[in-house]
Amino acid sequence: MLLEGKNAIIYGGAGPIGSAVAAGFAREGATVHLTGRTLSALDAVAGDIRAAGGTVHTAAIDALDPGRISAHADHVADSAGGIDISFNAIGLGDVHGTPLAEMSLELFERPIVNAARTMFLTTQAAARHMIDQGSGVLLFFGGDGGRDPVRDYNIGGFQVAMGLIDTLRRQLAAELGPRGIRAVTLQSGGIAEAIPADEPDRDAITEMILAPTMLGRTATFDDVGNVAAFVCSDKAGSITAASINITAGAVAD
């Protein structure tokens, strides 16, 4: 198994991407520590993982709360013997459909401020323990779309937030690389399965993310989990400061 003996914390573990990565980690032998605001939702995901033979723990954590994030990371490190992987998949509170020229400052800055706060807090909490053990992976999700702006659908400050996360990943990789810690982003270009069935613009969003792909599909939840597990494994030990392209050809490197 790729991740046998590894401990992974996942923030936003009840969401579609968080749960997909949790399942991928557990399949490869990691002990998964799911966090989120709603314990009942986390327990539902944990039940599926346990039914498939995985090991998982849950904790109600607000990934914007520095005290709770730090205390939980300390608990995991102390009880499990370390933190090997930290992955943050929380929703950023982004607003779609309103042109920037018509958007309020509050709506524009919400995903940017949330991204800066949660990504800094969660990676810092994990990095403290990873430095002590001389290894670890900080995993991010999304990417900035190959630095190509989205032209056909207004996504507010979300794309700006993605650029912020990519810059943070590069800086963390530079600062923490000498301590054996890697920082990697999974760049998806959008996951069709993750669009809620009750999203009013579901068809338009699906068409937007499918149109530029070369495979005629987006990555699936299984794709996301499998690639995440490989990237966080020792077999990918030379990959850092990198954005791993799982856009199904929507972005050509």
UniProtKB/TrEMBL annotation:
Query: What Pfam families does the database record attribute to this sequence?
Result: adh_short_C2
Sections of the chain in a coiled coil? none
Organism, by scientific name, is Streptomyces boetiae
Question: Would the keyword Oxidoreductase turn up in this protein's UniProt record?
Answer: yes
Q: Which CDD domains match?
A: SDR_c
Superkingdom: Bacteria
Task: Write out the entry's keywords from A to Z.
Answer: Oxidoreductase
Similarity comment: Belongs to the short-chain dehydrogenases/reductases (SDR) family.
Question: Per its UniProt record, what SUPFAM superfamilies does this chain match?
Answer: NAD(P)-binding Rossmann-fold domains
The protein, known as: SDR family oxidoreductase
